[in-house]
């Protein structure tokens, strides 16, 4: 059975139990018929049904749409308005169900001599007292906690998947193979650049293995990784591609989610280079006033069938940005028949 199916079954079971709680906690329990024919019992059943709707309104819409995006004022205002609407609806239903019912004339009948009338008490009711007044708060907080826990587990899973994906796929095997071949050629020629190329490649692999699993890393480390990647690509491609890279501003004291920028850089080299066509790649990183702007531009060239563009890397990067930076980033992707351009503005921490 899948995790999603289990979650649906758990929600369904919890919803049924919550809906039956007024019956289970009724003084007339286990006589369900008496509870359902009682105005107070019916009112509590309707109250719990409406509270289930209020819970899923928060769980499925308000929390992910406003709370996770740190739009707290809108979140609490809408939650208050929906809670007020639900309370008024409950009050209206109570008045409607109570209309036309004449109060019982006089005191309740006494039991016959020798018989003791059982006390109308229930353990659950004794524990929760008159819970209708604060049940909204419980439902409200529960929706936030459950959705936050679900989001945290999703982030943990995404982080693991992202780390594995980068270790297995994001470092292009062709790039690694071609770079090693180029280093081998340099070694045969006894080039002075051989040792430098080996150091850069080993540093990149070390960064992937040791740092990519963290939530945030030093921005300078991320920029060093990007710089080494571009330099190795320049060395590998030689004169077959025109590559421009500029970085300005100070990265000192800032942190960033690891490998959040490299996807867009890798995408340019993967789909913007063809030795038989004019290949031009421009990369710019600017840091100013607690923000980072990344611009990547490449010419569209013909690529081999094995490297057909899937867009998976870009989509994964967009999902990570949405989860990790929410409303603290702006991503713009423009393309025409000749060029592909990505502009990412990121609020630094």
TrEMBL record:
The keyword Transmembrane applies. Pfam families: His_kinase. One of its GO terms (molecular function) is phosphorelay sensor kinase activity. Residues 163-239 form the Signal transduction histidine kinase internal region domain. The keyword Transmembrane applies. Keywords: Kinase, Membrane, Transferase, Transmembrane, Transmembrane helix. Gene3D superfamilies: Histidine kinase-like ATPase, C-terminal domain. InterPro entries: Bact_2-comp_sensor_kinase, HATPase_C_sf, Sig_transdc_His_kin_internal. The chain crosses the membrane at residues 49-68, 75-94, 123-146. GO terms for cellular component: membrane. This is Histidine kinase. It comes from Taibaiella chishuiensis.
